[in-house]
């Protein structure tokens, strides 16, 4: 159970920081960044932060850093990001994406789930504590503005600012309830390597009647892609799986205890078939690697007929990786594969790279987050060794030596990155109250 005073406070102050959602802080379009960081620094100062500032020294969009003094010697570091995805297609939104709208028990806005709503929840809790005896722990915030474009400088910022970021534990940007309505406690992230493939076979498009001798860039790229992954889904790049770790007994036991809700997952994703890629979803979501074509472009794609041989073709690919796969090593393996299979004409460019990690599930802080959640959510809790997605958490785990946990306020139907992104009001209230109870428990723990 949670303190009714906290839940009532959160409910009454849920809109206090809604201005944050009106900033169009779209990193991929370089929009709204200065205005957003200025607003954040001001909010942290008004809440009583000892330090609230922006860091620019390592490049990329600035980091907003803030630190608060609490009533114990324990320090919790929060990671969030203030940048969001573009809202397009705008025609599919039922309300303005940058005007937060409450309807049918939900809050709709771009970034309300990923990731502004999570920070709003944490700011609301700070405000509550400051009005009710002070913070139970020291709190620090690392809020970046380039997460949606791959967090290119987070490693450098963490290394350069180890002293300021020194902490005992790290709470990551957020988390959700799953398709079974279980509150998820996630303890790791998959790694990511993203790359572009390009091939050019002519200086201009060619009449398709000359296909008897003229090379076709589109076919060339498709053949290269086909060489890397079989119809069964196996990745055919030599060495790709060599460093995949088997799960520890503790982690395997958690995986064995989970249940994948196929019907709800298909509905939430809008999948048009019930024939999914694998048959071992519980394991693969934790320890399965992937190679995904994100996009293909070549030749004429307009209405009607245009009989050409495309001069060029391009594809975007990402791979999701697990411990101990190194993104840079995987990139080199893909490069070698293309060369060894006769595709030396395919240009390959790395566009994003983050390492995987998994916090030890027996860590005392992980166990505390679980016990508090079981009390607040009446046992409907799922411990997740790592999420299927990636993020720039590795340096916080490796450089700062923090156990990292992801807990938050959204749910399986929140639709991050999609039109009508939303969270449920009750999840915001419950998740905020949970965070307050967790911080209080951690601050008084012996």
From TrEMBL:
Coiled-coil annotated spans: none
SUPFAM superfamilies: Zn-dependent exopeptidases
Example GO molecular function: succinyl-diaminopimelate desuccinylase activity
UniProt keyword annotation of Protease present: yes
Pfam families attached to this UniProt entry: M20_dimer, Peptidase_M20
Residue ranges occupied by any Peptidase M20 dimerisation domain in the UniProt entry: 189-341
EC number of this enzyme: 3.5.1.18
Keywords: Hydrolase, Metal-binding, Protease
Keyword Protease: yes
Uppermost EC category: hydrolase
Protein name (record): Acetylornithine deacetylase/Succinyl-diaminopimelate desuccinylase or related deacylase (ArgE)
